[in-house]
Amino acid sequence: xxxxxxxxxxxxxxxxxxxxxxxxxxxxxxxxxxxxxxxxxxxxxxxxxxxxxxxxxxxxxxxxxxxxxxxxxxxxxxxxxxxxxxxxxxxxxxxxxxxxxxxxxxxxxxxxxxxxxxxxxxxxxxxxxxxxxxxxxxxxxxxxxxxxxxxxxxxxxxxxxxxxxxxxxxxxxxxxxxxxxxxxxxxxxxxxxxxxxxxxxxxxxxxxxxxxxxxxxxxxxxxxxxxxxxxxxxxxxxxxxxxxxx
Length: 246
Fold this sequence. Notes:
The protein has one domain (4-107, 133-207): SOS response associated peptidase-like (hypothetical protein yedk fold, Alpha-Beta Complex), CATH 3.90.1680. It starts with a strand and ends in a 30-residue tail after the last strand. A hairpin with an 8-residue loop joins strand 8 and strand 9 (121-128). It is globular, with a radius of gyration of 18 Å. The strands form 2 sheets. Strands 2, 4, 5, 6, 7, 10, 11 and 12 form an 8-stranded mixed beta sheet that branches. It has a 5-stranded antiparallel beta sheet with strand order 3-1-8-9-13, with no helix packed on it. It has 3 helices and 13 strands. It is mainly β.
């Protein structure tokens, strides 16, 4: 679930909303079809202060203990189930002190329309009714590429995963899971790097259904090459673009 999401806002607007005082220098154009393995903004607490910083990280977490990127090829680490964070070696370390917010204006989910061997699917765009951005609960980690020679320069790859939880009433119409969307009042507690305190797993709950809305959107969003505001259009309004199953 939630293999795609979108961001419509400018970089500075995202930083202001999530109270990030330090922001990466790279440009960040609107992205209406964010897919795993791409580099996206996350917000986290800085190492030596309570200030927040927004950095670019790869969606699809590579744990610090991986010996190579090939170790995790084909393994889905772009999502992490809230129910298994405390027991999985992949998530236990990041859960303790490397938590982050993943900004999004909304996300996509596909509803299965029939029970055939290759069922038809209809994508839906899910957002908040007040038009405000979402902050998904996320985990991040840093992986260092092994040196190929004594003269090699250390290369670090920062990556993240989106935490998922059980679907709320509105999401259960199309899927059993959804991203763990955090209330603004809970952002500070989720980001707190104090590893002595227990991880705030109680924050990973289904979001209020009445504050969310969903609508069928452009089937072309299933193809990562398609991007733009037309991804949010209803099937009747959508232009003809290359399709691909989700």
